[in-house]
Amino acid sequence: RINALATRALNWARLRKKQNAEKKICITLFQFPPDKGNVGTAAYLDVFGSIYSVLNKLKEEGYTVDDIPENIEGLQKSVLEDPLASFSMADLNVAYRMPVDEYEKLC
Question: From the centroid of its chain, how far is CA 85?
């Protein structure tokens, strides 16, 4: 446990020293129950508006953010109509499967 904790602390320290443009960030979009009709739905929340604001703030703070649509509706359309995201949950649109040991090295 101590080794894992020390490794995690070192990784956090390295991350803190990186320039924002070098950092990789993932935004996870809520979808329940699974499948396209429920992408980005959450009661009383403006999911796509929030994501749009976060993307613009990240860009403002020096993160590399490419191809931000001109408005919230454009962002929503780009997500919902993305041809690469047309797989159903049974097909799982997975670009890369990370082995556990690789994941643990990143933590």
Answer: 14
pTM of the model: 0.69
CB 21 within 8 A of CB 64: yes
Q: Is the pLDDT of residue 73 over 80?
A: yes
Mean pLDDT of 84-97: 64
Return d(Cα 94, Cα 107) in angstroms, integer. Answer: 21
How buried is 48 (Cβ within 10 angstroms: 0-12 exposed, 13-18 middle, 19+ buried)? buried
Peptide bond into 33 cis (omega under 30): yes
Helix (H, G, I), strand (E, B) or coil at 31: strand
- Which of the pair, 69 or 82, is modelled with greater confidence? 69
Type of residue numbered 105: K
User: Distance between CA 107 and CA 104 in Å, rounded?
Assistant: 5
